Amino acid sequence: RKEVEQDPGPFNVPEGATVAFNCTYSNSASQSFFWYRQDCRKEPKLLMSVYSSGNEDGRFTAQLNRASQYISLLIRDSKLSDSATYLCVVNHIPGNTPLVFGKGTRLSVIA
Amino acid sequence: GAGVSQSPSNKVTEKGKDVELRCDPISGHTALYWYRQSLGQGLEFLIYFQGNSAPDKSGLPSDRFSAERTGGSVSTLTIQRTQQEDSAVYLCASSQGGGSPFEAFFGQGTRLTVV
Fold first, then answer.
1. pLDDT tens profile A45-61
2. Which of B6, B35, B39, B107 has its Cα between 20 and 30 A from that of B26?
3. What is the pLDDT of residues B66-92, one digit of tens each?
4. From the candidates B43, B53, B75, which should be mutated to test the interface with A, based on the most A CB atoms within 10 A?
5. If you measure CA to CA, which chain A residue comes closest to B101?
């Protein structure tokens, strides 16, 4: 089983739609979780960290389910500018182990 | 402010030649990562430096790949006897490291093409 697994998509959604991505991780002792965004031919950038209690940043909501070892990202009211690849990232032991990236889920928001 | 800087931005090399890729992390960041990304693929971990600890080299695909980090700052990734399958974008990232989940900042990458 891969350390971090994501549905590769692509997800093609109309503007204004709500879309959700899931990610599963294999190491139950992993401690830190993130969503990164990567635009075409650009470097990845942090979208948001994922906290145990769940967290929201504007139209974006991230949730962590430790029991089932999955992380989710919900995007409400999709914009054309949300089109990108969303990368799920897990860190087993922050400060001692490298970030492990999923292969990403591609989102296309269509007018 | 200055971000992570990588050079060169593009490199075309002939099969069998050696190449060196350079990464200047953000000043003060103790953690430095190298990843590579082939076209349309995810990020493949190569090597991780954290402070003065021994680097985690578990992702290096073969003994043709090596990396060093001098003075805890600049890092060089060296690929010897390049092969066509080495063609990819090589991404470097740095973070404050330590025991907290600090954000990793990426450079714009070096696009390596082996012909």
1. 999 999 888 899 999 99
2. B39
3. 999 988 799 999 999 999 999 999 999
4. B43
5. A94
